[in-house]
């Protein structure tokens, strides 16, 4: 039975396409920045599953006392991994958005937007603020004690959950804004038994004006 042979040009096209695809994959992997993990001894380490499935949001507030920081390269000024009773959760602060802590190929527009909010900062200056915000929040979280107030509201469709967080006796939302390390930009919430979201936002803007002065 005669063997079918592909025309030589067909083989050349196949080899060329595979070579181009391999080149794109290699370049893409090299272009993604990698942050080294912190060498500091943490309040928690990755000896349990990376992310526990949070309870389903039901509108009721839950207080998580005695949380500890889990050192993770994704931690920044307004979003971080905390451990509570042996389970790890990623929490995102209500009301505030800290600048990006490093530049990668997908966040250039976001950094530029953040820089404009802070009065026309350059990209490097904006990233420097993001690094300062990260260092400030993580230093308080490492020191503790850490308490989380959450109703398990999802941040978009991710495993992150919105929360108010106290660390070292300070409310992180207030502390970041009063030091000029965050913009008032993301979702807010009525504090249980306290101010409405609108009143809270107004108060934070007052702290922001003081920080600018």
Proportion of helical residues:
25-40%
The outline comes out as globular
Ends: how far apart? 88 Å
Give the mean pLDDT: 84
Number of strands: 8
Question: Which sequence of SSEs, written as H and E, runs from N to C?
Answer: HEEEEHHEEEHEH
- Rg, Cα atoms, Å: 23 Å
Weakly predicted, low-confidence segments? 28-43, 45-49
The portion of residues forming beta strands comes to: 15-25%
Structural class: alpha+beta
What is the secondary structure topology, with strand pairs?
Elements: H1 8-31, E1 62-69, E2 79-84, E3 87-93, E4 96-97, H2 108-117, H3 123-143, E5 146-150, E6 161-167, E7 170-171, H4 172-178, E8 183-184, H5 197-212
Parallel strand pairs: 3-6
Antiparallel strand pairs: 1-2, 1-5, 2-3, 4-8, 5-6, 6-7
Helix pairs in contact: 2-3, 4-5
Relevant terms:
single chain, 213 residues, alpha+beta, 5-stranded mixed barrel, 37% helix
What does this 3D model show about the protein?
With 213 residues, the chain is an alpha+beta fold. 37% of the residues lie in helices and 18% in strands. It is built from 5 helices and 8 strands, in the order αββββααβββαβα. It has helices spanning 8-31, 108-117, 123-143, 172-178, 197-212; strands at residues 62-69, 79-84, 87-93, 96-97, 146-150, 161-167, 170-171, 183-184. The strands form 2 sheets. A 5-stranded mixed β-barrel has the order 1-2-3-6-5. Strand 2 (79-84) and strand 3 form a beta hairpin. The longest helix is centred in the N-terminal third of the chain and has 24 residues, at 8-31. The protein is globular and about 70 Å long. The relative contact order is 0.15. The model is unreliable at 28-43 and 45-49 (pLDDT under 50).
């Amino acid at each position: 039975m005669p063997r079918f042979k592909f025309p030589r040009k067909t083989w050349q096209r196949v080899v060329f396409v595979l070579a181009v695809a391999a080149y794109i994959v290699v370049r893409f992997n090299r272009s993604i920045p990698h942050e080294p993990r912190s060498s500091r001894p943490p309040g928690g380490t990755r000896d349990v599953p990376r992310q526990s499935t949070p309870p389903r949001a039901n509108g009721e507030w839950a207080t998580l006392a005695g949380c500890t920081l889990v050192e993770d390269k994704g931690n920044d000024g307004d979003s971080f991994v905390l451990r509570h009773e042996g389970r790890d959760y990623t929490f995102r602060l209500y009301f505030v958005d800290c600048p990006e802590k490093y530049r990668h190929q997908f966040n250039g527009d976001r950094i530029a937007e953040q820089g404009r909010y802070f009065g026309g900062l350059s990209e490097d200056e904006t990233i420097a603020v993001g690094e300062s915000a990260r260092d400030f929040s993580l230093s308080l979280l490492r020191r503790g004690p850490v308490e989380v107030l959450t109703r398990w509201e999802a941040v978009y469709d991710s495993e992150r959950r919105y929360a108010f967080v106290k660390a070292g006796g300070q409310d992180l939302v207030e502390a970041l804004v009063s030091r000029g390390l965050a913009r008032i930009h993301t979702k807010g919430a009525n504090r249980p038994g306290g101010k409405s979201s609108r009143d809270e936002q107004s108060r934070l803007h007052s702290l922001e004006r003081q920080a600018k002065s």
